[in-house]
Write a structure and sequence with these properties.
mainly alpha; two-stranded antiparallel sheet; 8 helices; about 0% strand
Protein backbone atom coordinates (compact mmCIF):
# COMPACT_ATOMS: atom_id res chain seq x y z
CA UNK A 1 0.00 0.00 0.00
CA UNK A 2 1.30 3.45 -0.82
CA UNK A 3 1.74 6.31 1.62
CA UNK A 4 -1.88 7.53 1.54
CA UNK A 5 -3.78 9.44 4.14
CA UNK A 6 -6.47 7.44 5.90
CA UNK A 7 -9.27 9.63 4.54
CA UNK A 8 -8.38 8.62 0.98
CA UNK A 9 -8.51 4.96 2.01
CA UNK A 10 -11.96 5.53 3.50
CA UNK A 11 -13.16 7.10 0.24
CA UNK A 12 -11.64 4.35 -1.88
CA UNK A 13 -13.24 1.62 0.21
CA UNK A 14 -16.79 2.96 -0.13
CA UNK A 15 -16.89 5.86 -2.57
CA UNK A 16 -20.67 5.74 -2.93
CA UNK A 17 -21.16 6.69 0.71
CA UNK A 18 -19.06 9.85 0.41
CA UNK A 19 -20.52 10.87 -2.94
CA UNK A 20 -24.08 9.86 -2.09
CA UNK A 21 -24.17 11.70 1.22
CA UNK A 22 -22.63 14.80 -0.32
CA UNK A 23 -25.35 14.83 -2.98
CA UNK A 24 -28.09 14.16 -0.42
CA UNK A 25 -26.91 16.99 1.84
CA UNK A 26 -26.64 19.30 -1.17
CA UNK A 27 -30.22 18.63 -2.29
CA UNK A 28 -31.87 18.33 1.12
CA UNK A 29 -32.71 22.04 1.28
CA UNK A 30 -34.96 22.15 -1.81
CA UNK A 31 -36.47 18.79 -0.92
CA UNK A 32 -37.48 20.07 2.52
CA UNK A 33 -38.75 23.32 1.00
CA UNK A 34 -40.75 21.46 -1.65
CA UNK A 35 -43.13 20.27 1.07
CA UNK A 36 -44.34 23.85 1.45
CA UNK A 37 -44.00 25.22 -2.09
CA UNK A 38 -43.83 23.76 -5.56
CA UNK A 39 -41.30 26.43 -6.61
CA UNK A 40 -38.68 25.24 -4.12
CA UNK A 41 -36.09 24.11 -6.67
CA UNK A 42 -36.44 27.29 -8.72
CA UNK A 43 -36.04 29.48 -5.63
CA UNK A 44 -33.11 27.37 -4.44
CA UNK A 45 -31.26 27.57 -7.78
CA UNK A 46 -31.80 31.33 -7.94
CA UNK A 47 -30.49 31.66 -4.40
CA UNK A 48 -27.39 29.66 -5.36
CA UNK A 49 -26.85 31.88 -8.38
CA UNK A 50 -27.36 35.18 -6.53
CA UNK A 51 -25.14 34.35 -3.54
CA UNK A 52 -21.91 32.83 -4.87
CA UNK A 53 -20.07 32.89 -1.51
CA UNK A 54 -22.89 31.06 0.27
CA UNK A 55 -23.15 28.64 -2.66
CA UNK A 56 -19.45 27.84 -2.60
CA UNK A 57 -19.47 27.30 1.17
CA UNK A 58 -22.58 25.15 0.86
CA UNK A 59 -20.91 22.95 -1.75
CA UNK A 60 -17.76 22.64 0.39
CA UNK A 61 -19.89 21.79 3.44
CA UNK A 62 -21.81 19.13 1.50
CA UNK A 63 -18.63 17.46 0.26
CA UNK A 64 -16.96 17.55 3.68
CA UNK A 65 -20.08 16.17 5.35
CA UNK A 66 -20.04 13.20 2.98
CA UNK A 67 -16.32 12.71 3.62
CA UNK A 68 -16.83 12.91 7.38
CA UNK A 69 -19.57 10.28 7.44
CA UNK A 70 -17.48 8.07 5.15
CA UNK A 71 -14.48 8.46 7.48
CA UNK A 72 -16.65 7.81 10.54
CA UNK A 73 -18.02 4.57 9.09
CA UNK A 74 -14.53 3.54 7.99
CA UNK A 75 -13.13 4.18 11.48
CA UNK A 76 -15.86 2.02 12.99
CA UNK A 77 -14.60 -0.98 11.01
CA UNK A 78 -10.89 -0.22 10.96
CA UNK A 79 -8.54 0.69 13.77
CA UNK A 80 -7.47 4.14 12.54
CA UNK A 81 -6.41 5.67 15.84
CA UNK A 82 -6.89 2.75 18.26
CA UNK A 83 -8.11 5.23 20.84
CA UNK A 84 -11.22 4.96 22.99
CA UNK A 85 -11.68 8.73 22.91
CA UNK A 86 -12.29 8.64 19.16
CA UNK A 87 -15.99 7.88 19.50
CA UNK A 88 -16.58 10.97 21.64
CA UNK A 89 -14.76 13.16 19.11
CA UNK A 90 -16.70 11.75 16.19
CA UNK A 91 -20.01 12.05 18.04
CA UNK A 92 -19.30 15.68 18.88
CA UNK A 93 -18.29 16.28 15.27
CA UNK A 94 -21.52 14.77 14.01
CA UNK A 95 -23.64 16.79 16.46
CA UNK A 96 -21.72 19.95 15.61
CA UNK A 97 -22.18 19.31 11.90
CA UNK A 98 -25.92 18.81 12.27
CA UNK A 99 -26.31 21.93 14.43
CA UNK A 100 -24.17 23.93 12.02
CA UNK A 101 -26.29 22.67 9.16
CA UNK A 102 -29.51 23.68 10.94
CA UNK A 103 -28.25 27.14 11.91
CA UNK A 104 -26.14 28.24 9.01
CA UNK A 105 -26.26 26.08 5.96
CA UNK A 106 -29.89 25.07 5.58
CA UNK A 107 -32.10 28.08 4.82
CA UNK A 108 -35.17 25.85 4.98
CA UNK A 109 -34.26 24.99 8.55
CA UNK A 110 -34.71 28.60 9.64
CA UNK A 111 -38.39 27.83 9.99
CA UNK A 112 -37.34 25.34 12.67
CA UNK A 113 -35.03 27.89 14.29
CA UNK A 114 -37.80 30.48 13.98
CA UNK A 115 -40.06 28.14 15.89
CA UNK A 116 -37.56 28.10 18.75
CA UNK A 117 -36.47 31.74 18.55
CA UNK A 118 -38.27 35.02 17.85
CA UNK A 119 -38.48 36.11 14.20
CA UNK A 120 -36.14 39.06 14.71
CA UNK A 121 -33.45 36.73 16.07
CA UNK A 122 -33.89 34.33 13.14
CA UNK A 123 -33.55 37.19 10.65
CA UNK A 124 -30.50 38.51 12.50
CA UNK A 125 -28.87 35.06 12.45
CA UNK A 126 -29.60 34.62 8.75
CA UNK A 127 -27.30 37.56 7.93
CA UNK A 128 -24.41 35.56 9.40
CA UNK A 129 -24.99 32.43 7.34
CA UNK A 130 -21.43 32.43 5.86
CA UNK A 131 -19.96 32.59 9.36
CA UNK A 132 -22.07 29.66 10.58
CA UNK A 133 -21.21 27.70 7.46
CA UNK A 134 -17.49 28.33 7.98
CA UNK A 135 -17.88 27.25 11.59
CA UNK A 136 -19.61 24.06 10.44
CA UNK A 137 -16.82 23.39 7.96
CA UNK A 138 -14.22 23.93 10.69
CA UNK A 139 -16.03 21.49 12.99
CA UNK A 140 -16.12 18.84 10.28
CA UNK A 141 -12.42 19.29 9.44
CA UNK A 142 -11.56 19.09 13.15
CA UNK A 143 -13.64 15.92 13.49
CA UNK A 144 -11.98 14.28 10.48
CA UNK A 145 -8.62 15.19 12.00
CA UNK A 146 -9.59 13.69 15.38
CA UNK A 147 -10.66 10.49 13.62
CA UNK A 148 -7.15 10.32 12.16
CA UNK A 149 -8.28 11.08 8.64
CA UNK A 150 -5.26 13.23 7.78
CA UNK A 151 -2.66 10.79 9.12
CA UNK A 152 -0.51 8.93 6.65
CA UNK A 153 -0.61 5.18 6.74
CA UNK A 154 2.30 3.03 5.58
CA UNK A 155 0.86 -0.42 6.19
CA UNK A 156 -2.57 -1.94 5.93
CA UNK A 157 -4.96 -0.87 8.66
CA UNK A 158 -6.24 -3.79 10.65
CA UNK A 159 -9.89 -4.35 11.21
CA UNK A 160 -10.99 -4.01 14.81
CA UNK A 161 -11.69 -7.73 14.99
CA UNK A 162 -8.13 -8.64 13.88
CA UNK A 163 -6.21 -6.79 16.35
Amino acid sequence: MRNNIILLNAIKEKPFIAIGLAVVIFFITPIVQSFSTSLAFEIWFRDLYQKPLNSFLYIVFSILFGLFISMYLYSQHKCTTCNTKTNSHSASGFIGSVLGFLLGVCPACFSFVGFLLPLSTSIFLSTYTPFFTLLSIAIIIFSINKLGGFKKVKADIFTKNDG
